[in-house]
Every structure is written in C-alpha cells, then in structure tokens.
Amino acid sequence: MCCGLLMPDHRLVLGFLDYSSETALFVYLLSLALRRRCCGLTGLLAYVTVSVGVGVLRLFAVAHYGALSQQYALCYWLTDFPLVFAVFLLIASFFRRACAGRVEAWRHVRLMLTLIPPLTGAVSYIAILRLRHSFFPYFVIEFQQDLYFACLVLVTMLYLMLLKFDPADEQLGLLVCGLGVMFAGFAASYALVIATRWAPLAGVLSGYIPQVSDMGMVSIWLYAAARVPKTVPAKEAQKAPKDFPAGALARI
Amino acid sequence: MVVAVLILIFSTAMFFFYFQATCQRVLRREFDRDYFTPVVNANRLEFPSVRKAVLDYTVPVEYSRFRMMLKCDYLALSYLLGSAGNQQRRYSKEDRLLMLYFRLTVFSLTLRHLFHLGERPAILRMTAILEYFGNVIGRRVNLAKTGYLSASDYLLTLD
Fold first, then answer.
1. Are B7 and A181 a contacting pair at CB < 8 A?
2. Residue ranges per domain, chain B?
3. Contacts of residue B19 in chain A, CB cutoff 8 Å?
4. Does the beta carbon of A163 lie under 8 angstroms from any beta carbon of chain B?
5. Full-model pTM
6. H-type helices in chain B, by residue range?
7. Does B30 touch chain A if contact means CB atoms closer than 8 Å?
8. Per-residue pLDDT reduced to its tens digit, B79-91
9. What is the rounded distance in angstroms from the CA atom of residue B52 to the CA atom of residue B37?
10. Segment A95-118, tens digit of pLDDT
11. ipTM value of the model?
12. Phi, psi of A102 (to 5 degrees)
C-alpha cells in the first residue's frame, strides 16, 4: 500500500524541486560573485556549480533513457563520485576558514584531510574483496554509505571545532549545519537499505530521503548566504585598525 | 549488517542534532529591541511566566499545565504570524521551520515526561521559540504601523 503511494513520479517531482532550489542558490551565489560580495563563499559557489552540472547531466539521462532505465542508474552512481569529491573539497575549505589565523591547528587538520581519501579507499578495497561476486550494486551502495558517513564524521568534527574556535561565525555554523543535515540523511538512507537487506520499502524511502535532505541543505545555505553576514574571526578583528581612536575623539 | 545498523542510528541522531542546531542558530537572530512584550500583553500570553517558573528551580514543573499553556500560546502566535501585519498572509520559510521545531519539541517534551528525563530544557526551548514568534509579530506590526520612518519622520507626521 505504502509502496504503491510512493510512485517514481513523486520522486521525479521531488528531484525537479531539488534541482530547481540548487539552481536558485547557484544563481544567487553567482550574482553575489559578480557584485564582488561573495566573501567567504567561493568554495560554496564552486561546489554548487559542480552540483548543478551533475544535475543537468542526470536530467539529460532521465529525458533520454527514462527514470527507471539502467543507463540513468549508471549515470546517477557515476556522477555521485565527483559530487562526493567536490563536497570533500568544500569541507576542506570550511576547515580552512575555521582555522583562519591558527597555523598549528590547520597543519593537523591538513594531515587528517590528506589521510581520509586513502583510508576510504582501503575500506572500499575490503568491500571489493568481500562482495566480488555481486560487485556493482552492493559495492557502490556500501562504498557510498562509508564515504558519506566519513564526511558526516568530518562535518561533526568541524562543527565541534567551530564551537571551540569561533562560535561568533554564524554563517559558517549554518553552512556546516546544512552539510550535516545532508550527510546524515544520505548516510541514514544508504544504511537503511543495507540494514534491511534491500527491503522494498527501504528502497523506496532511500529514493526520497537523500532528495529531502539535499533540499534541506540548500534551504539552509540560501538562508546563510542571504540573511547571515560573514563574521570576521576574533583574531582578525583584533588585528584590524580601529576607527576613531580615543585620542582623536578627545581632540574633536 | 551491524555496522549498517550503527551507522543508521548515529546518522538519524545526527540528522536531528543538525536540525536542532540550525533552528537554534535561527532563534539566535537579534532584534533591535524587545518587540514581544506588547504582543504578550495585548494577547495575555503566558509563556514569560512559564519561563520564569521553570527557571526558578525551587518550584516543581507542572507538566500538564505548562504544556497546555505553551500550546495555547503557540496557537495564538501561529495565527498572528499568518495574519498580523503580514500582507502576503502566509508563513515565511523560517516561520515554518520553527513551527516544525516547536511541534518536535512538544513531542520530545512528552517523551521526556514519560521517561522522567526532566522537562525543563524542552520547556525553555519552547518558550524561546514563542519569544521569537512574538518578536517577529511585534516587528511586523511595528513596521506596518510606522513603515520605515525614522523617529524624527514619525514625529513630523503627527503634526
């Protein structure tokens, strides 16, 4: 009954809404960049550009081969790899922004970020060994689950770091929260599929949860970019010259 | 399988954590002054007294009474959000997000009461949301009344 209600048509509509909101964010960030007001959001613009590009490719695949075709499924999974890589670079740029003015902390973070891709590669290699008989569907799902989960852990570390270093940067905090919502939704949906051993309802839900969490992330990012101004880190603010020193005011 | 279940539990918990963190950051938005006080007085809302009672740790939390008071305030404020000083007659995305957050907090309050986990944090969160709504309504009404006039402009119109 429930599966009957959740038809692929709804998923397509949801996907279209998702792409539309991402395009709106892209246009907004681009307009900010053209007016040279994209301060601190360049990494975000780069990621959204990749994401919109991937979205166009997927829409092209749907239009040509159909939503239920194997070609679309192949296109979807193959384009997910550059997307995850781009989001990894975005997280790295957020770490860089959080570590502004803290050279020692950035050194440690950079080392950790360099170790993440080979570690994920090692985990996926173990998955290949274990699932070599039915490589493609199981491996891809398991690999994605691990990768998104690793990114979720990274984002959580970033959030905690942000709380410790610069709790005043509301914009970065909201951007990280958006990423957290997206990764948590993605990791949960992939884990649900594996934990229920590809139960039909879990399969249907896993089609909806990532799109809903992606839309949640885009909405939070739009709010962060439009409503919340970038806060100057405390250390930089201390370095900045102050207007009207007390002596000057006394002279007036 | 076990790893997948663990990831599922952790990810679901993190989803709600980040949702809450986002709502808390939206709630942290600063208003140039306290707009909610006239709204509270005009509509005889009770959330400030509930907050005062909850912050006073010597008084026991009257769960069912406080819950009812806050839910009534929520109904009044959510109605005002959609109508008072709102020319478009519809909720903004922030309003909708915080309304969902309020409902989830009511659910968490029920769970906290059932499992004896202490209701104070959930009640304080609910009062913070109601205060935010009061501020939004007060600000909208203030803008609708005076527009974007400065204090001197407004005084000149009184002549």
1. no
2. 33-142
3. 181, 216
4. no
5. 0.78
6. 2-27, 36-43, 47-55, 63-83, 93-114, 120-146, 151-157
7. no
8. 988 887 777 778 8
9. 14
10. 888 888 788 888 888 898 888 877
11. 0.77
12. -120, 85
